[in-house]
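Changelog-adjacent note: as of this version, every example in the card shows the full chain rather than a window. The one below runs 237 residues end to end.
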Amino acid sequence: MEQVAIIAQRREETGKGPAHRLREQGLVPGVAYGLGREHMVITVPRQELERVLGTERGANVLIDLQIEGVKVDKDTAAIIKEVQRHPISREPLSVDLQWISLTERITVQVPVEVEGEAPGVEEGGVVDLIMHQVQVACLPAAIPDHITVDITGMEINDTKHADQLQLPPDVEILADPAEAVVTISPPIKEEDLETRVAEELLVGLEEIPIAEEELELAPEEAEEVPGEEEEPQEESE
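Full-length structure tokens:
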């Protein structure tokens, strides 16, 4: 498997303040570790990181991590172990990179994709993908882009399990063989759909954050709150 190059820089400062300044410069703070190597704090250009994450393999892409002063042999690469993102903008806030050996099996999460046509869907059923990712073990160069589950021939209420996934050669699935992967659910009745939509709207309203300043009454509003009376003032002699 071809590796994607990322040029990283070591950084000296740590903490929220320096990390914020780095992000303003288009850099993502991170760490690199693994294979008994020195734990290093680094920065990665945001555009390069987004380019890697935007590939077909996403976080499972093999990376040629280039750091000044760090020698890496031909049997070593790096993978993205974790990316923390801003909850609203989704921009990467930090990244963990792990050195791995290309000659040793590793454990990764791989997306599950559905293929085929099911008679149950033609009858109004709905494809319900329960397992969106599956954990597998394999050599780094054998990491698949995705694992396929074939729904051909499935009727309403049929279910396929982890032991029915289509695995590439030399890839071992680590999930429970009996774990449900996909099912063809019965059609949703109109009244059930309306109830579900109403419930989701209520949940959405409950999750809307209210700023503290919106909870504070303006001075003129505070004076009009019923049940509150002004304390009598003592008359001066």
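Structural remarks: The chain has six helices and 13 strands.
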